[in-house]
Amino acid sequence: MKRIMLAALCAASLLTGCDQQQSDAAMNKLKSIFNAVKPDALLLQDLKPGVTTEAQIRDQMGEPDTTRTFTDGSKRLEYPRGPAGTTTYMVDLDANGRFVAVTQVLTAQNIAKVRPGMSMDEVRRLLGKPTTVAEYPLKQERVWSWHWEEGGVTRDAMFNAHFGPDGIVTTTSRSEAEGGGRH
Question: Where is the Outer membrane protein assembly factor BamE domain (predicted)?
Fold first, then answer.
């Protein structure tokens, strides 16, 4: 908490002497940095179904990595907590822009749903933004990897979805997280 206060004081001192537009831009940048490191309990605090608005969610959680709008007017906001984080939150809004639910999608149940034959878009909608993307030109393969809480002895691991040149899952695998799963 002391580090956050120190960072806020430093930022405030840097903002003195800036014009209003520069000051607003710097404040928004600072806010996005704080949202990126904000503990999940604060990030998700006081979200009330049918009451909390999209604007309030964006103010509290920051700008989502991806926003998907569905045919019925409802939306899904994607908040990956990376790059080393092990959670990705999907925030669902109704057609009126009101909060419906939040779901942590990097779970064993969702990972088990990834199967050969799925498209990149289907996998992205299920698990959110991958932690890393690796290209293997000689194998004609692209591998998306997610850092996630696996539990058990190693605690966390990497889930990998392997895509062929057509963007379709060919196989999946598991690998050790950087640091040997001691995050």
Answer: 105-134
- Residues 119, 97 within the same domain: no
Where would I find the H helices in 16-98? 20-37, 40-43, 54-61
Considering the domain boundaries, does residue 19 fall inside one?
yes
What whole-number distance in Å separates Cα of residue 45 and Cα of residue 70? 26
Look up the pTM and report it. 0.76
Q: Do 115 and 99 have their domain in common? A: no
Q: Which residues of 21-55 are buried (b: 16+ CB within 10 A; e: fewer)?
A: eeeeeeeeebeeeebeebeeeebbeebeeeebebe
Indicate the number of domains in the chain: 3
Do residues 100 and 115 both lie within one domain? no
Using alpha carbons, select from 154, 151, 162 the residue that is nearest to residue 179: 154
Tokens of 86: 């092990």
Same domain, 31 and 45: no
Helix (H, G, I), strand (E, B) or coil at 26: helix
Structure tokens at 45: 């605090």
